[in-house]
Amino acid sequence: MHRELRFSQLSPQRQALVRLCQSINYGHIQDLAVAEREPILTGAGTVALVDLRLDADPGLRDELATVDFSLCAEVCRLMSLLDEVGNGGISKIEVRAGIPRRILVESRLTEAGNLIGR
Predict the structure, then answer these.
(1) 117 has pLDDT over 90
(2) How wide is the angle at C-alpha 31 spanned by C-alphas 26 and 36, nearest 5°?
């Protein structure tokens, strides 16, 4: 049986990443460092790019005011990916409608040309 994952069950660092996605609404997070399976949002490395449409009022996401909620499948997959990365980084997270939709993960190649950690 699949157990529902809730926002309140996440570490403060992971909660901050979810909130960042919600506040970006449409855009990207670039060069996200991951240390001990936790996203590192402080420091000069991580950049948030917000895609603003000039022909529409983007408004704020309703979830930003919600204290606790069930996490959608995409956020759950992002949390699993953080566990897989462990110590490393995520090159790019594409955010659409406040939800991480696509991820670009940098992986090193072995001498045989195989991906390490994937």
Answers:
(1) no
(2) 115
| For helices 73-85 and 12-24, angle between their N-to-C axes, nearest 10 degrees | 130
Q: Which domain holds residue 38?
A: 7-55+62-105
Interatomic CA distance for residues 29 and 51, integer angstroms: 11
Residue 85 carries which side chain, given as an amino acid letter?
V
Q: How many domains does the chain have?
A: 1
Measured distance CA(28)–CA(84) in Å, rounded: 21
Domain for residue 112, yes or no? Answer: no
pLDDT digits (tens, 9 = 90+) for 22-71: 999 999 999 999 999 999 998 778 999 999 888 877 676 777 778 899 99
Give the distance from CA 64 to its chain's centroid.
15
Q: Is 111 exposed, middle or buried (0-12, 13-18, 19+ CB in 10 A)?
A: exposed
